[in-house]
Design brief:
It is a single chain. This protein has 98 residues and is mostly beta strands. It has one domain. The strands form two sheets. A six-stranded antiparallel sheet has the order 2-1-4-5-8-3, with no helix packed on it. Strand 1 and strand 2 form a beta hairpin. The model has no long low-confidence stretch (mean pLDDT 94).
């Protein structure tokens, strides 16, 4: 299999062996192994998952993304609110597809 489509954190990613990708936060320590379900491969499309196919990956690191500023304002009402948000992420390295 040359590539696979996986879903984690309500997002879908196209992965290949040896690739490093940044996904929404996963539980697991740095260096631990995780298994992800496969939605599709180069040869087969699942409904909803490809039966028996898994992607093995290793957790490289955890972190937080850049800050997003959320600003609300209502004109002529003296209403202003500012909030910030930083999304957590996990970087994983794809070990095998199959």
């Amino acid at each position: 299999m040359s590539f696979a489509i996986i879903r984690t954190g309500d997002k879908q990613f196209r992965v290949e062996k040896g690739a490093k990708i940044r996904v929404p936060s996963l539980a697991g320590d740095v260096g631990s192994s995780v298994e992800l379900d496969v939605l599709a491969t180069a040869e087969k499309i699942g409904s909803p998952l490809v039966e028996g196919a898994k992607v093995a990956a290793t957790v490289v690191d955890h972190g937080r993304d850049t800050k997003i500023v959320v600003f609300k304002k209502k004109r002529r009402k003296q209403y202003k609110r500012t909030k910030g948000h930083r999304q957590g992420y996990t970087t994983i390295k794809i070990d095998s597809i199959g």
